[in-house]
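job 3f2a | input accepted
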Amino acid sequence: MSGVVLCFDYGTRRTGVAVGQRLTGTARPLTTLAMPQGQPDWAAFDALLKEWRPSDLVVGRPTHLDGTASTLTATAEAFAATLRERYSLPVSMADERLSSRAAEELLREQRTDGRRGRIDKADVDRYAAALMLEDWLAQPHPATTHD
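job 3f2a | predicted structure (147 res):
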């Protein structure tokens, strides 16, 4: 078991990706993948999973602020089910409420401090994935085992 976890901030145009480590409980933004015609670029996903060899995958579950399902909830859940089937790995759903807003705030602070330049939506997506993953890693989870 690697202890590496990949998290996806699923979107129909872009999917932000973060990588984290169960042992340290830390996560960092990794990349943003294009979603041509609203569909995953499976070659890009395959390459990421081959490179990082995660023990777990996490997908952001988009909901309204009150926790009720949004128009993207079922699509993100279907994406998570496809990941589970395609890669034979455990896939968890993570609450993504306000993750993009928190990511935008963090990036604006970095820009104000002079630590970064222009901010684009791809930056927000991957940073949102990292924030979601840090929250997920902070929660207790059973150890992952593979047969």
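job 3f2a | Helices lie at 42-52, 73-87, 99-112, 121-137.
job 3f2a | closed
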